[in-house]
Amino acid sequence: MTSIDPANLPKHIAIIMDGNGRWAKKRLLNRIEGHKKGTDAVRNIVRASREIGIEYLTLYAFSEENWKRPKSEVSALMTLLKEFLISEFSEMQENGIRLNAIGRTEKLPEAVRKTLSETITKTSSNRDMVLTLALSYGGRQEIADSVKRIAFLIEKGDISVNEVTEDLISGCLYTAQIPDPDLLIRTSGEYRISNFLLWQIAYTELYITPTLWPDFGKDEYLAAIADFQGRERRFGGT
Ligand code: FPP
To answer: Which residues form the active site (predicted)?
Structure first.
């Protein structure tokens, strides 16, 4: 197993979990089976993150664009999400994991919203790791919502145009309470960002692997972290 330096961990890891459909297709299975296997991978990576000592883990679980998928697939994903929240609750409590969600979660079905908000409330005093699920999330929509909030503050006279700074914009995003990701992992070999955390990843290190999400496990997760630790981050400086 790859060894990593515990003194130089990425504080925040974000993951674009891609490839569930292809994983299923390769096995002549229904796409939903891929999402089920993908849910097992989520469970393993959440557990591994906590063991390693990652403070913030953000998972792209459902994008704004995912609503365009067939109704049956959307509905299966919603069911898996709800089941995941219920089955993982006790482990979140035992391991000090606080659940958080970003995105236009008001669009989720009532039953999912209810379980989600109950889990967020019940885990709110946990302090060891923040697990953020991006649900009905789109980076451009997030920026548009932030601009609206700022325009509203200016319109009310609470702030002036000169007070619009990068920090103010960051503070009006859904991720206001979360540091920017240090490492972004994308599985299934696609070299794109797919509208994920557009503002926040300005200086994030990228790790793209051909491994399909259901096959992504702790070994490769450690390899991604070790790869990150071997990089020199300059943040635009020399
Ligand atoms: C991409 O695979 C994955 C998704 C659209 C959603 C990710 C969902 C899960 C991992 C399961 C449920 C989530 C949680 C948090 C329990 P794809 O369908 O786009 O794969 P493809 O590109 O190969 O078709």
So the answer is: 18, 66
